Amino acid sequence: MKYSDLDRVREWKKDFETQLRLGHVAQLSYIWLPNDHTDGATKKILDAYQFMAQNDAAVGRVIETISHSPIWKESLILMEEDDAQNGPDHVDATRTIAFAAGPYVKRGALVGDRYDQLSMLRTIEILLGLKPLNSNEAMAAPMFGIFTDKPNIQSFTPARISERIADADRERYRQLGP
């Protein structure tokens, strides 16, 4: 929690730009941005709003960076919350959210299909031409409902960052640049 998600993105971005420069970008990259968990109600590090603002800014910079790169036309960015955070809701105790970005992802759509974490993994396996590792993955519903056959290659520009972002994170964000 003491390490900013924006610092994580800075390190990821350095690696990504090196891969672009060398002309070989990995087919699959994974980045963990955990600070949307916050530090509960405490303010020992940051308050919950500052943690969320930091995480949102970091996610926006990742998408912006990829969408302004030469590989955007063939990219897919999948994000998921790793748990339901606040317990059960009116549908399911383990329900959470996921986001997708890319030229072949439906823009501005709310897809209500029932997918789970294995659905995301299965979707990645299909796109990379990989076989499932076990029967649970093989039976998972791929996330076909998020895609369109008409790509939109317009790059992503993040919304203005939250006014609640901590001063140090505001500076980190500025240094990351577009």
Strand neighbour order, sheet with most strands: 2-3
The beta-strand count equals 3
Largest sheet features: 2 strands, antiparallel
Q: How many helices does DSSP assign?
A: 5
On the 0-100 scale, what is the average pLDDT? 91
**H/E topology pattern:** HEHEEHHH
Q: What would you report as the Rg, rounded to the nearest angstrom?
A: 17 Å
* N-C termini distance: 25 Å
Task: Report helical residue fraction.
Answer: 25-40%
Instruction: Tell me the quaternary state.
Output: single chain
Low-confidence parts: none
Backbone shape: globular
What fraction strand?
5-15%
The chain-level structural class is mainly alpha
Explain how this protein is built.
- It contains 5 helices and 3 strands.
- The chain has 178 residues and is mainly α.
- It has a domain at 1-75 and 162-178.
- Helix 1 runs parallel beside helix 2 and helix 1 (5-22) runs parallel beside helix 5 (167-176).
Indicate the topology:
Blueprint: H1 5-22, E1 38-41, H2 48-67, E2 77-80, E3 98-101, H3 117-128, H4 135-139, H5 167-176
Antiparallel strand pairs: 2-3
Helix pairs in contact: 1-2, 1-5, 2-5
Give the structure's gist in a few sentences.
This protein is mainly α. The chain has five helices and three strands, in the order αβαββααα.
Defining key terms:
178 residues; mainly alpha; 7% strand; 5 helices
